[in-house]
Every structure is written in structure tokens, then in C-alpha cells.
Amino acid sequence: MASPTPVAANPENSQASGAMNAHAGMPPATGSTASAKNPGKPVRRLALLLCFGLLLGLLALFSLAVGSKHIELSVVIDALLQPNDSADHAIIRDSRLPRAILGVLAGSALGIAGALVQSMTRNALAEPGILGVNAGASLAIVIAVGTFGINGFNSYVWFAFGGAVLATGAVYLVGMAGARSSDPVRLVLAGVALGAVLSGIGTALALVHPSAFDQLRAWTIGSLEGRSGEVLVPLAAAVLVGFVLAAFTGRSLNALALGDDTALALGYKVGRARVLILLAVTVLAGAATAAVGAISFLGLMAPHLARRFSGPDARWMLAYTAVLAPVILLLADVLGRVIIPGELEAGVVCAFIGAPVLIVLARRKKPVAV
Question: Which listed residue, of 200, 267, 300, 321, carries a Cα 20 to 30 Å from 59's Cα?
Fold first, then answer.
């Protein structure tokens, strides 16, 4: 009896297997072509990530010197290391330093929230606002100002956060009502529908109460100006919780990128993973949106830029987004101080920066898949 002829290994199958394992957060198969060709790729990614982190630190330091009054970098360093009661040190300590920290925290939160939404829905045009975060926060601000007479950012910021959380929860309940599985398309449709309803209600109430309309208009633009240090501690706590939740979703995101059926075959619980992702998005986007306003374009742009350097691995993409998003927001804030006399809000400048970036990324010959 003749022995069966051994089947030769197909290098294409080996590469496909390695790609599937990489997407799913699993180590590539032994002897895979991808690993042989790129043995130092994680090292290069880490080195580039550290370079972007250094850029973020330098940009934050530069933001402390730029403003209506220019302050020398030597004075800025003295204010950080050996503060005194001089006027320049007071400006840095009481105004610009909290503003820079706010930009780093809110930028990272909005960027990661956008990356999570895009990966969960497998929609390259998704951002946190698609789940009703902005609409819920806006409606809550109108109610706080118009109904309860609450004025001042530090007072209604808590209403904005609560409105964002409630809106996202309502989107999930409506999108998943009667469904056996957590279909991302249903979530997107529910988010768009409820967002439109909440925005309409908020606009109608704002027209009835002119004072609420003024507050809403100032918040909707999105800015780092006028925020006190009191917001930093609760925002930092919320961002920390959101980062921890996002860190646990990295492997799930890689599996979900292959489709629900493949993720289930790999042993992932798709419904539980999407609930965890949605919870992380709610905490991150809700806290950041309440703190700096509706800077929605950042959550759309930063993940696309991060994928340009990280590749399809969701874990690297989240890490890059956490650094690149605050770089963009701080850059927009600094440019807004020097472009025109006075100041241009960071939300407006961020849109000016983001549009060319997205156009360049869209015209690339080899786009990176979500």
C-alpha cells in the first residue's frame, strides 16, 4: 500500500494564518513569513511611540510659554521647578498649566473613544458623537441653564457628563432591544436617530431660553479656555478608568475586526466585548466632552492618523492614538492663540487641521483597514 504523498506547505496560507493571528491578538505561527521579515517591528513601533511622547511633552511645555503674553521658556521651567509669587509664574501656575493638562487628558480620552467606536462598529467614519454623546450632553446643558438657572462651566459640567452617559445608555438599550446579538449597525442607527431627537429637543429649548442658547453655543464650539483646575481631578479619574477599560478590549478589538463569526470561533464573547467597549467609550467621551465641549472631529481624525504608524493591531493603534490625539489638540490650542488677535477656539482650529489630514490619508494608495 503506497504511503500518502505529503502536502507541501503553502506560503500564502502561512501568511494568511499569521495575519489572522495578528488581528486576533494572538502570536503568529512559528516560522510565519511576517515574523521572519519584521523581527524588530515591535521595537520600531515602541521607539516611534516614545518619539511622539517626547513631542507631546515638548508641545505641552511650549504651550505654557505661548499666549497673550509671551513668556520665556527659562521662566516656564523655573515656574515648574522653583515657583514663586511673580506675575509670570502665577499665569503659568493658575491658567496655562491646568489648560495644558486638560488638553492632554481630554485629547487622549476623545481620541481613544473615537478609536474604540470605529473598531467596534467597523466604520471608518464613526466617532463618539455617533452614539449620542454630544447630543445628550448638549441637552443636559440646556436643561441645567434654562430650567434650573445654573450658570458657569464648573456648575453645568456635571450635567453634561450625566447627559452624555444617559444618552449612550439609551442608545445601547434601543439598539439592542429584542436583539440576540450586539449588532454594531443597530447601535449606529440607534445613535444617529436618538442623537437627532435629542439635538432637536435641545435646540428647541435653547431658543426658548436665550441664556441657555448662549451657554450652549460657547460649549458646542469646544475650547480649553476658561476651564479651572477643579475639573482636572474628576476628569483624570474618569480618564484613568476609561484607559483601564480600553486596555482590556485590545485583544477583543483585533478579533472583532475579523467579523463576529470568526471572533466567536476564536473563543471571544462578542456581546460582552461590545458592552465593555461601549462602557469605555461612555466614560472617556462623556468626561472629555463635558470638560472641553464637543470637539467631535478629533475622535474621527486621530485614530486614522494613528493607524498610519501602528498598522492594523488595535493595541498599538490605541497606544498611538492616546499620544497623537493630545498632540493635535494642544497644537490646535497653541495655533488658536497666535493665528488672530485674541483667541480662536481649539475646536475650530482642530477642524482646520483635521480636514487636510483626512484628505491626505484618504488619497493614500494603500489605506489601512479599520
Answer: 300
